[in-house]
Amino acid sequence: VQLQASGGGLVQPGGSLRLSCAVSGRIFSVGHMAWYRQTPENLRVLVAVIANDHSTNYDSSVKGRFTISRDNAKNTMYLQMDALRPEDTAVYYCNVDVSYSEDGTYRRVYDFWGQGTLVTVPS
User: Fold this and answer.
1) What is the arithmetic mean of pLDDT over 28-55?
2) For residue 58, how far is the Cα from the chain centroid?
3) For residues 7 and 21, is the Cβ–Cβ distance under 8 A?
């Protein structure tokens, strides 16, 4: 199974970006899907999470500016980021709860990480 994150880039303050995270492979099911970002202190902080039923939660710093969504048919998650600020600059990582088949064996990983995508908002 693979997680492919994309959509990062350089954007001016007040601008918007849309991140995507696609889960591929022999997938049985995907549970929660979440976006984290890495702080300058190298801590991964939860930004937003969306459950299979599309219920969501956000960190207070992004509430009202970011919107997390998912397309269950495509096993893909999105993060629409609006009104971006310099403090949003970070590497953003996707994290999912996924069950899949590997060499005919059922496996489940509750916190499967994708590679990061860099978002830069200059001051």
Assistant:
1) 94
2) 12
3) no
Give which of 55, 47, 27 is closest to 95, Cα–Cα. 47
- In sequence order, the 6+-apart residues with CB closer than 8 A to the CB of 17 are 7, 8, 9, 11, 81, 84, 119
**Which DSSP helix (H) or strand (E) runs through 19?**
strand 17-24
How far is Cα 17 from Cα 39, in angstroms, rounded to an integer?
Answer: 19
Neighbours of 118 (CB within 10 A): 12
List pLDDT tens digits, range 62-73: 999 999 999 999
Tokens of 13: 């303050």
Q: What is the pLDDT of residue 41?
A: 84
